[in-house]
Write a structure and sequence with these properties.
The structure holds 2 protein chains of 2 kinds. Chain A is of the alpha/beta class. Chain A has a single domain, classed as Alpha/Beta hydrolase fold, catalytic domain (Rossmann fold), CATH 3.40.50. Helix content of chain A is 47%, strand content 19%. Chain B has a single domain, classed as Alpha-Beta Plaits, CATH 3.30.70.20. Chain B has 3 helices and 5 strands, in the order βααββαββ. A 3-stranded antiparallel β-sheet of chain B has the order 1-4-5. The chains are: A alpha/beta, B alpha+beta.
């Protein structure tokens, strides 16, 4: 991977292809979840940019907890550094929240926004999911970093999540345990504190693709992400739905082919 | 807004069968099927991309009666 050093912030990134830029903002714990998507032929006509957010893998370690806005500012700085703004922004889970913030803070830098099951947990069943996810915190605080990461991912991705991770992202679980501080001391509280209302969504006029895994509700035993999907379609003025078959919350890792085909269709129309 | 990802085809026989039209409207979890005033089945275009690919409509209809087409890769769900 390459390093971009921007105003004292170091972000490692990689690019593939040429054409209109697409930047992927990863979600919690695993910084490489863009890679299965990046490798798909359907996206070969785009300049696909994947990067590790601060606190992940070889990117710089933040001095303290980062807010969602700070993560969005990092992404914007990278886009500008790579002369890739405006770009199509694709965000997964907490990364989708960062993408939304980026669209609010720098609308001129965002050509379209693809939200892969964004962590907009203020929905009716969101409290139950947050409660389940919270079980990982005492494990982390007791020093069981790998156990805490596994507990969190089992709750948000379903108990079979490791199958696709071990196949498509070898080494990701070890890296996630090494990067656990970034999530538990910064990202988790930042996402919980982030405020987003219907009025904010109304300001985002770019085309939005809301992606829901066809298996997510069944995998986690809660309708949280269906509720979020419906909320995105209701709140964002220019949102389209896409239901990804054969996938739960690790959408682009579990079914990168269909995700890439669907994303390419959306990008070609926007 | 036209559908971007999903198309649903049904035969005239399926569309004109009132009992089947009612069944299709019942089984679809995202309301892609509706019943017209004359009882025939119609497709609700604005709901097509909400399709969760559950295939309940495909299974509810006779073989070849309903086809779900994934426009983004050309795959067809049918029986």
């Amino acid at each position: 991977m390459e390093q971009a050093n921007i105003d004292g912030i170091s972000l490692e990134y990689e690019t593939r292809g040429s054409g209109d830029p697409v930047v992927f903002i990863h979600g919690a714990h695993m910084g490489d979840t863009y890679r299965p998507l990046m490798a798909e032929p359907a996206l070969k006509d785009y300049r696909f940019i994947g990067y590790h957010r601060r606190g992940y893998a070889g990117s710089g370690r933040p001095d303290g907890p980062l807010s969602v806005s700070e993560h969005a500012a990092d992404c914007l700085a990278l886009l500008r550094n790579l002369d890739a703004a405006p770009g199509h922004v694709v965000g997964h889970s907490s990364g989708a929240v960062i993408g939304i913030q980026l669209a609010l803070d720098a609308p001129d830098a965002v050509r379209s926004l693809t939200l892969l099951e964004p962590a907009l947990l203020d929905v009716p069943s969101g409290g139950a999911l947050i409660e389940a996810l919270g079980a990982s915190v005492p494990m982390y605080e007791s020093g069981d970093r790998a156990g805490a990461v596994d507990s969190f991912l089992r709750e948000v991705c379903g108990k079979d999540y490791r199958r696709s991770v071990e196949t498509r992202l070898p080494g990701a679980m070890e890296q996630a345990a090494a990067d656990a501080d970034a999530f538990f001391t910064g990202e988790f509280p930042a996402i919980a504190e982030w405020l987003f209302a219907k009025e904010d969504a109304a300001r985002i006029t770019q085309p939005v693709l809301s992606v829901l895994g066809a298996n997510t509700d069944a995998a986690i035993g809660l309708p949280t992400y269906s509720e979020i999907h419906e909320r995105v379609l209701e709140w964002f003025p220019n949102a389209k739905p896409f239901v990804l078959p054969g996938a739960a919350h690790l959408l682009q890792v579990e079914n990168p082919h269909d995700m890439a085909e669907g994303l390419a269709t959306f990008l070609a129309n926007n | 807004m036209p559908a971007m990802f999903i198309r649903v085809d049904m035969t005239r026989e399926v569309a004109g069968d009132r009992e089947l039209a009612n069944k299709l409207a019942e089984v679809c979890p995202v309301n892609i099927f509706a019943q017209a005033p004359d009882g025939s089945a119609t497709i609700v275009e604005e709901n097509l991309d909400e399709c969760v690919l559950c295939e309940l409509c495909v299974q509810a209809a006779p073989p070849g009666g309903v086809r779900v087409v994934k426009l983004y890769d050309g795959t067809v769900l049918e029986r």
